[in-house]
Design brief:
Chain lengths: 127, 363
């Protein structure tokens, strides 16, 4: 059974989103996604300053098995990427919710309300 | 819709062990039991086991078994000396395309055990039966779906097999690499698909779960198809349907060493097509020098022409990404090439296969 922290937001494309005190968003992939991917061996992360539309592919996570795109949960600008994680990508398997991929400054703070909560995401992956 | 996936005799065992199950060639098979990389290392460093019961064992018997196989297969069973010796071969169609790759064990001049891939099993059996009927050869072919198969692989695989299944020890201790023996109702081959020592054990399906449990108790790690794929890739072994199929000649798929033209009087199926269409590509390994992961069907740019990867993944032993690439004949090992990964051209080095053998990197 995969973990789903109640304080996080989620997307149907299996990203988790944490809303920080300053309104910025920290983004990773869910425990469910990490289980499905298997051993993660490579991350391609976006450059800081890149401006993204909602749902735009902006990172790639590669497991031994396959490559998967990671999408921007809402529109915004990349403010940081986790280079330490890129150097040790197995961290995604060790703890998916500690392994953040990038931080995003949303173009419109209200967009966050459109993301799934834990129950909504649980319903998505149960299908 | 596809038919419901078939289950091996070990299916419940895999599910109980928490395996992640996937469809493979119509079978519901374990892809891993947790970490694919740890399973890979278990085989390279100690001992791991795979349920390969989806593969099909065939028994061929009859006075014409040897001449019939010499016609059916691109490799020549006549080179199998002592009883039990095994041969890897392609089975070709008339155009020289690969119908399947298989292992054949010679038990005597009139008796052979053949093991074919799961996804091609039905096609293989019909092809063989058609050829038996057309040739009028005195042979009979029996498909052994009553058997399960467990591959135990790794430097400690044989010792742990004997510990777990001591009744197999006497009959399998003297087996040389790439040979097999029938021990009562169990067939043991000192063969595999990992580049390590070990056994492939075909046994009655109703004995499989008990044998798996004994092997587990002896410290053999259950491994899924995920690790099997990275192990065979490091070992430089082709996967049917990915590295070759009916549209590719074995001469273009890195399998020229398995096609035996020595006996000019031997007219195996596909021979004339191979003679009129000599090799146009060669297969080399690629080691990615930049960061990323090679996959199948990526375009490769060499100084003297373009090619394509057929299989690619991350190599847990080398901790780099590796691939097989079908390249122009002019490309040599040791060259730097570029691979298109999602629109970026990354650098890779060509090498002779395999990448790893008996636990050690050889590139």
């Amino acid at each position: 059974m995969s973990k789903l922290p109640a304080e996080l937001k989620y997307t149907s494309s299996h990203e988790w989103v944490r809303v920080e005190a300053d309104g910025s968003l920290t983004i990773g992939v869910t425990d469910h996604a990490q289980e499905a991917l298997g051993d993660v061996v490579f991350l391609e992360l976006p450059e800081a300053g890149r401006v993204l539309a909602a749902g735009e592919a902006c990172a790639v996570i590669e497991s031994v098995k396959a490559a998967s795109d990671i999408y921007a949960p809402v529109a915004g600008e990349i403010i940081a990427a986790n280079q330490d994680l890129a150097d040790a990508p197995e961290g995604v398997n060790a703890d998916a919710y500690a392994a953040w991929l990038f931080k995003l400054k949303p173009a419109n703070a209200a967009d966050v309300a459109g993301l799934l909560d834990a129950a909504g995401y649980q319903a998505e992956i149960a299908q | 819709m596809n038919a419901p996936a078939r289950q091996t005799a070990l299916h419940a065992t895999h599910v109980a062990a928490g395996a992640r199950m996937v469809d493979f060639a119509g079978w519901d098979m374990p892809v891993n039991y947790g970490s694919q990389i740890e399973e890979h290392h278990a085989v390279r460093r100690d001992a791991g086991m795979f349920d390969v019961s989806h593969m099909l064992s065939l028994d061929l018997e009859g006075a014409d078994a040897t001449p019939w196989l010499r016609k059916l297969l691109a490799n020549d069973v006549a080179k199998l000396g002592e009883p039990g010796k095994a041969l890897y071969s392609c089975m070709l169609d008339e155009t020289g395309g690969v119908i399947d790759d298989l292992i054949v064990y010679r038990l005597s001049d009139t008796r052979y055990r053949i093991v074919v891939n799961a996804g091609t099993a039905d096609k293989d059996v019909s092809w063989m039966r058609k050829h038996i009927a057309a040739s009028g050869a005195n042979v009979s072919l029996t498909a052994r779906r009553d058997l399960a198969m467990i591959a135990v692989q790794g430097p400690n695989a044989r010792a742990k097999t004997w510990q777990a299944l001591p009744q197999l020890r006497a009959g399998s201790e003297t087996l040389k690499p790439f040979s097999g023996a029938q021990l009562g109702d169990v067939f043991v081959g000192r063969t595999g698909y990992t580049g390590e020592d070990g056994f492939e054990i075909a046994l009655p399906a109703d004995q499989a779960a008990a044998a798996w449990a004994e092997l587990t108790a002896a410290g053999v790690a259950p491994c899924g198809l995920g690790a099997r794929d990275t192990l065979r890739l490091e070992a430089g072994m082709n996967l049917y349907g990915q590295d070759m199929d009916e549209t590719v000649s074995p001469l273009d798929a890195g399998l020229a060493w398995t096609v035996d033209f020595k006996d000019e009087a031997r007219n195996f199926v596909g021979k004339s097509a191979l003679i009129t269409q000599p090799a146009s590509r060669r297969v080399l390994g690629l080691i990615l020098e930049d960061r990323g992961v090679l996959r199948s069907h990526m375009k490769v740019f060499a100084p003297t022409g373009e090619g394509e990867t057929t299989s690619g993944s991350f190599s847990p032993t080398l901790e780099k990404s590796i691939a097989f690439a079908r390249l122009p004949l002019t490309v040599e090992p040791g060259e730097t090439v570029e691979v298109d990964i999602r629109g970026k051209r990354l650098k890779a080095r060509t090498v002779k296969l395999p990448f790893v053998r008996n636990g050690k990197a050889v590139v």
